[in-house]
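Sharing a chain and its predicted structure for anyone who wants a worked example. Both blocks are below, sequence first, tokens second.
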Amino acid sequence: MSTLADLATVADRLDIRPITPRIGAEIHGVRLSGDLPDATVLQIREAIFAHKVVFFRAQTHLDDAGQEDFAKRLGKVVPHPTAPPADGTNYVLDIDGTRNRASAWHTDVTFIDTFPQFSILRGAVIPPLGGDTVWANTAAAYRDLPEGLREHADRLWALYTNAYDYAGTRPGATEERVRYHREVILSTIYETEHPVVQVHPETGEPALILGNHVRKIIGYSSADSTQLFNLLQSHIERLENTVRWRWAADDVAIWDNRATQHRAIDDYGTQARVVRRVTVAGPVPVGVDGRRSVTRSKIPAEAA
């Protein structure tokens, strides 16, 4: 068991360098693995909560198994609910730009009720130009809302689903990427109701969730729902709330999926880009009024 002296030593040793005042930090001098000391893991967790997303350069030793082993130190590792794991792994999601480009603002897997607390992403094949990822601090976005809008957001619920018009939201998507979304991502169709503002299970911070898995704000017409969504989402996407990461091969990013949104920038054309993700399960979300999220449907595509 780690002692307070151990923690003080680790705190002194970890080299944490904030990137922006609101979000993002690089951590130097750590070799990620499944056998890191407890005190080091604790300090990494605290850095994730403080900075929302943290980055580790040049983790050249890390392979799929090592990524899974390290992720298990942060909590219960879970596979993607619809996409199969990469060959030879139990939990690694292979995000190959030829099939899948996460180029819309989103929080990972919000179409289920226990969406991930942490996501761990490793750069496997990185194009020489382009393919950056941007993260936004959704807790800061919530704090910055005008008081009246913040109080209104506290009462809103939204219906989230993985069944959305992929081609319509990505006009330049190739046939292969559209087919992957239809056949793999939609192999089971989920619909879940979440509070738009959720209380973070570790920090107690309220944060906006939203993102591209939202079908509609519950209780509003389609037109009013769209306007409410766009208004709140625009506060998340403000540049003041964001950090942009220029990937290199073997970089690792870890983010607090309960307090961020992110998007991959689709500007690398036909260049190869492959990143690999492992996620750590979170509990059922809770709104500011204590009400918990609920899954409304889970239907295999052939039965839909």
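Comments welcome. Confidence is low (pLDDT under 50) at residues 1-11.
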